Amino acid sequence: MKKIGLIILLLVSLVSQAQDFEDTETKTKTENKDLIACSAGITLLDSNKIEMAIKEFNKVIFNNPNNIYAHEKLGEIYLTLQKNRKAKKHIWKALEIDITNIEGLSLKIRYLIQVQSYQDAKKILDTLIISQNKNYYLLYIRAQFLAHEKKYKEAVSFCDKALVGNPDFIDALILRSKIKVELLEPISAFKTVSKAIEVMKGKKNNLEAYKIRARIQYDMGQYELAIKDWDVCIKKNPLIEESRLARALCNIALNKMEAAIKDLDTTIILNKKNYNAFNYRGVAKSAINKDKEAMQDYNQSIKLNKSNASAYINRAALKHATKDAKGGCDDLLRAEKFNNTKAVDLYNIHCR
Description:
- The protein has helices at 2-37, 39-46, 50-63, 68-80, 84-97, 102-114, 118-131, 136-148, 152-165, 170-182, 186-200, 207-219, 223-236, 241-253, 257-270, 275-287, 291-304, 309-321, 325-336, 341-350.
- By secondary structure, it is mainly α.
- Helix 4 runs parallel beside helix 6 and helix 8 (136-148) runs antiparallel to helix 9 (152-165).
- The radius of gyration is 29 Å and the shape is elongated.
- Mean pLDDT is 85; it is low at 2-30.
């Protein structure tokens, strides 16, 4: 009798295992089918044809509302475009289809960070990272959290762990270089961000990497090299005033004032309230003896930002050069009010 009972239990177990295998096989086939359905959209996305990719993934969802890959891809696209409401809709749907899906949970963490719900994101991450401690994307997100908390050395450690999992992970390389800048380690930052730029060759450029390297090169006095990186940024997006202003500063450092003025003119066209652009255009115009125009630019810079100590100091220098010593000293006193040590030193030299 016991023998019959054991045989029955064995048969039940075998049937159960067969059912589990069948369920797994069915799930795998479904996943493969869903992924194949998304292949056209993925190809378009890889070619940076974003709008066409969105349309393709929406077609996939129309035919199969439970295609998890299409929802994940749309969630990721909308996160990148900072269309948070649309991103949330697709990420939450992907998790409704499969709550244990790592990709969906990673996107949810990214969404929560983007809408500044750091504690909610951290709770999910803390749970996930226990079981997924070699997932390079999660290690990278952990590094983001630590950097946000200004725990820079720990953040670098997690970036390094992420890069062990994927040495060409551009986001981790860029984050690591930013942290190294904060740690005042420019050589290490430069090497890391240069690796990111090398990895990007032939792919879609992340302009943040070029901006980081350009700033490092500027600080190191390598102005020509910095200009080359700003050229890449401006070619990709001519309407970003930050890039033009930064390239202008490089040209001022190289005494190429006409080139600087050209960039600053464009910066002011893009944003008539950019007080830094007026200030530095004043510097460039003063250097080529266009004193009247330079004075107008300093005045406008101060009008736009009355606490702009740099503009007061530059205007003071121009006033001293044009024999208005009292006016220059008055401007240095104004700059002193903003705890500007340079203004204090200049006042002591020229006005006492």
